[in-house]
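[Meeting: bench + compute handoff]

Bench side (C.D.) handed over the final construct sequence. Compute side (W.E.) agreed to return the predicted structure before the next meeting so the bench team could plan truncations. Sequence as handed over:
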Amino acid sequence: MEKKKVLIFQGGWDGHEPQLVAKRFAGLMEKHGYTCEIHDSQEPLLDGDYVKGFDLIVPCWTMGSIEAKARENIVKAVAAGSGLAGCHGGMCDAFREDVEWQFMTGGQWVSHPGGDGVRYQVHIHRGSSPIVEGLEDFEVCSEQYYLHVDPAVEVLATTRFPVVPYYHISNKPVDMPVAWTKFWGNGRVFYNSLGHHDDVFEKSVQAQTLMERGMLWAAQGKQYALENGLSTEKFENTAKMY
């Protein structure tokens, strides 16, 4: 039986503790029989065949930039069935100038009014997905993230803004997505905006369970694509025009 594999690449701003987060996520997936490879650079991403060999890709890379070829290889690997999953400091606060990265991941961080240490509620959308089955609403003490979000995502959890006064309070209160799923070609994408620091997952069992289930859901999509003979042909002609 072919081994189930996870590719994690870590780097960028150290303030989001990429090494600790990468280690935690690897441990969560290894419990389920996945072999995890952690890289401290983006160089392995330049090999398209290598990237396509993984069931799940987990970026832990804040801000910075990504080479067009590396991003293209991830885009194609996910479209072919590899899962993509990440948290705040690694996926939707990464590569801020790369719009196709944002298109694939489903959103982009834009602000955290009040900075760190804000107490707020995360509201679970019960019935939205098996990922949140049995989970209850929970409180977080961290940064509260304001995001620009793809309207196509399936929202699994939200938080209410505003909690902290800032310029945005002149608008009506809004429920901001905290976690979501979406599809990219034949691949599954999961995002959890929690994760300013690694200890968010230490302090909240619910937050870690949400992340663990989301990564597993994304990773299982590749086998589904293989078993159902799904190809990327219907996407590729349009992609060439992009």
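W.E. noted at the follow-up: The mean pLDDT is 95. C.D. will use this when planning the next construct.
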